[in-house]
Specification:
By secondary structure, the protein is of the alpha/beta class. The protein contains eight helices and nine strands.
Length: 203
């Protein structure tokens, strides 16, 4: 019996651990691929082009938007981010699930384009914990951290619009819960190819 792949959207405030959760879930499952976002922001120390993000100019990003190449795009903290449609469509056709770390605006856009998507919102255990994590970053200036804290409060209002919520108090537990969500959603009858050909394993 064959299964169609589906997009897995992971969103939440900055500093909540979305990227780490996505990475750990993908590493533990060969049927999940990671969608590398496109962004106009400059690389942070240690980030690699095409691995962490695909870094492009504003002009190139605008070209991609005009050409309809992006499944979603948004301005986050003064920089533009997006996900290519090709990255999603190419994987789900082969039965692979695509996990991506995108903001709430992007999550809603992907859900509209791909209704079969699974949306997971990651919450911090408390505002104090989130603030401590953000201030512990050596890569962001104080004014950037303050902006991220303000935006985090607004982003929390989007959590009820998501399919699932995971609280990242303990990273291992948050990863386990996210994996459980993915594994359970794979068992939806609507994701399976039914009929005689599916039973026989023929095309």
């Amino acid at each position: 019996m064959r299964r169609a792949g589906f997009p897995i959207v992971v969103s939440g405030p900055s500093g909540v651990g979305k990227s780490t959760i996505c990475e750990r879930v993908r590493e533990g499952d060969p049927n999940i691929v990671y969608s590398v976002s496109v962004t106009t922001r400059p690389p942070r120390p240690g980030e690699k082009n095409g691995v962490d993000y695909t870094f492009v100019s504003d002009a190139e990003f605008e070209r991609m938007v005009a050409a309809g190449e992006l499944a979603e795009s948004a301005v986050v903290h003064g920089h533009r981010y997006g996900t290519t449609r090709r990255a999603i469509e190419g994987s789900v056709r082969t039965g692979k699930d695509v996990i991506m770390d995108v903001d709430v605006q992007g999550g809603m856009s992907i859900k509209r384009l791909f209704p079969e998507s699974v949306l997971v919102f990651v919450l911090p255990p408390s505002r104090e914990t989130l603030e401590r994590r953000l201030r512990g970053r050596a890569t962001d200036a104080p004014e950037v951290i303050e902006t991220r804290l303000r935006n985090a409060i607004a982003e929390l209002d989007w959590a009820p619009k998501y399919d699932y919520v995971v609280v990242n108090e303990d990273l291992d537990e948050a990863v386990r819960e996210t994996r459980t969500i993915v594994e359970a959603d794979r068992l939806r009858a609507s994701r399976l190819a039914w009929g005689e050909s599916a039973v026989r394993g023929t095309k």
